Amino acid sequence: MTEYLQLWFVVEAIAMPDITNIAPVKSRLVDALGGKRENWELVGLLFGKRGNLVHGADERDIDDDSLAQLRNLVEVLLCLEFGLEDPERFDRLRAAAGLA
Hints:
The protein is mostly helical. It has 5 helices and no strands.
């Protein structure tokens, strides 16, 4: 749970000027990796899990797959922020979003 929240804070710091709006994250992914904003529902699902953790919903367990997807999202956002190319990582995130 702690790692998930720590990773989400990175998403907020890099790509969410308004920490309650995930649209900038989706827009950044569309610009860099393709698809449309609605294709990046994965971001919304991950944000929902963050909300469950922060706001004390009954479901507070984070499965390994969700944690891995969030790790990959953070790594991709860091690559984009610093102008780094990592096609394999980018392809993994596209596949997780159903774009591959």
